[in-house]
Design brief:
CATH topology of the largest domain: Ribosomal Protein S5, domain 2
Number of helices: 14
CATH architecture of the largest domain: 2-Layer Sandwich
Largest sheet: 7 strands, mixed
Strand content: 15-25%
Structural class: alpha+beta
CATH class of the largest domain: Alpha Beta
Number of strands: 13
Number of domains: 3
Shape: globular
Helix content: 40-55%
Radius of gyration: 23 Å
């Protein structure tokens, strides 16, 4: 098992501690999953666009031990803190003898102090719904109880998939014990559904795919997706002279949630309007196939952009076009939606990511044929695409933050001459993590060390850095 130093052993220690965990004769299964960083294209997933992600070496380890008393007992501790957060939920209050309650009923039954474990309870709920859990003692539903122990050093609310990593490791541990088999994509969808069951955004299915499939480093691997709806196209091996670094600003990445929900709806509204334009032109079927990512950026800017409303009130849209796709959410009739801005960002983010991935492939596949000056130009192009993404986050959506702006301005100020090619805020923005494309040479290291030293003094916050794709990044179903 590849795991962060301490996490796997700390789970074992909790199970050995009789004061922390009730005795059970069942064996203990422990699995772990890495964090991840959105290198480029996180929001492009909302448009079926390209997404580039990498795993991080920080991990969540989860152990499970079945028990026959019908209690679901969760014990969670963040590494570096002594306190253990404990939750005990009687399974019979969650799982009816005859049929499972609705998610809304289940949520209402959860005491407030247990809701931090909601995605994990949701995973048990979905597995019970599908008949994939062992029966309670006596041979009938609801399922038997379990003790779940969690140790993680993935930063919470840092846009590094800390919750998804815990759910991924738990699913792997349950599957190890129950011994049912489902495909990788089905696993990722199940994890996403568990995180979304009670109304949380839950990120995207590709997040769980990264935590399942990432190859261990070195060398570092960049996972390439097409989010239509969630297809892993492959893993690009980064050359040794290039590195991608994740810098946690220390600002929780929670402020962007409402903006992203509005972006999702406004993007769906824009797609519906473009579909109608195609039909008005006599096309029976729009060539988008349900995704803005299938619209050529050049075609969009030349013909469609000027036809989209800058802002549109929800009620006006509903009266003219009806509801957009249900998965986008429900439109607020009284709210103004920035339709053109949303489509501008989604189209450009897809375009930036596709070109960035092409640049990374070019560096890897044609390494012997590319001269040093050519490599430098390709990396400059890739870095500019990251900075263009940051520009859109910051100015179009208002989804940056002063701490991220400071980091990116310092990195961009060093420039390609010192081996610093580009940087951007990740995922939904508003805080969280900045990702930077750097040379492995000494000058870029010096820049990074200066920033690491200066940031706590200027921002009065610690700056945690990780090398994406380093050793310890193996996905949950890859680690052995």
């Amino acid at each position: 098992m590849t795991a962060i130093p301490g996490a796997y052993e700390l789970v074992q220690e909790q199970f050995r501690n009789a004061a922390a965990v009730d005795f059970s004769p069942w064996p203990v299964a422990i699995q772990s999953a890495p964090g991840r960083v959105d290198v480029l294209g996180g929001l492009a997933a909302e448009a079926g666009g390209m997404v580039a992600q990498m795993a991080l070496p920080r991990r969540a380890a989860v152990g499970i031990q079945w028990r026959s008393d019908g209690i679901l007992s969760f014990h969670s501790r963040r590494i570096g803190t002594p306190a253990i957060n404990r939750v005990r939920v009687p399974a019979h209050e969650l799982f009816s003898e005859d049929q499972l309650p609705s998610p809304a009923t289940l949520w209402a039954r959860l005491p407030m102090e247990t809701r931090w474990a909601a995605p994990l309870l949701a995973l048990f709920y979905l597995l019970a719904r599908d008949g994939r859990l062992p029966p309670r003692s006596g041979g009938s539903a609801p399922p038997c109880g379990a003790t779940v122990v969690i140790e993680s050093d993935i930063a919470i609310a840092a846009a590094q998939a800390s919750s998804t990593a815990v759910a991924t490791a738990l699913l792997q541990a349950i599957m190890h014990e129950v011994r049912f088999s489902i495909g990788t994509v089905e696993k990722a969808v199940l994890i996403h559904d568990a995180e979304s069951l009670f109304g949380f955004s839950g990120g995207h299915v590709v997040d769980a795919l990264t935590l399942l499939c990432a190859l261990d480093g070195p060398p570092a691997h960049l996972l390439r997706y097409r989010a239509q709806p969630h297809e892993l196209l492959g893993q690009i091996t980064l050359p040794p002279d290039v590195r991608i670094v994740a810098l946690n600003t220390g600002i929780p990445a929670t402020r962007g949630g409402e903006t992203v929900r509005a972006l999702r709806l406004a993007g769906a509204m824009g797609r519906r309007i473009i579909d109608v334009i195609y039909r008005d032109l006599g096309r029976r079927h729009a060539p988008l196939h349900g995704y803005l990512g299938n619209l050529s950026p050049g075609l969009y800017r030349r013909y469609f952009r000027a036809l989209l409303p800058r802002r549109m009130r929800g009620n006006d849209f509903l009266r003219t076009y009806g509801e957009p796709i249900p998965t986008a959410g429900r439109i607020d009739p009284d709210r103004l939606y920035r339709v053109r801005t949303a489509v501008d960002h989604l189209i450009s983010e897809h375009e930036h990511t596709e070109n960035f991935l092409q640049a990374m492939e070019e560096l890897t596949e044609d390494a012997a044929a590319i001269s040093a000056p050519q490599r430098h130009l390709i990396l400059q192009r890739a870095g500019r695409l990251m900075l263009a993404s940051q520009h859109s986050y910051r100015l179009r959506l208002g989804l940056s933050c002063p701490q991220a702006d400071w980091l990116i301005d310092r990195l961009a100020g060093a420039g390609p001459e010192r081996g610093v090619y580009g940087a951007r805020i990740t995922e939904c923005g508003g805080g969280g993590t900045v990702v930077a494309l750097l040379s492995s040479a000494g000058q870029a290291t010096d820049v990074l060390l200066d920033i690491i030293t200066e940031y706590p003094r200027v921002m009065n916050l610690p700056l945690e850095t990780q090398m994406a794709g380093a050793r310890g990044c193996a996905g949950a179903q890859v680690a052995a």
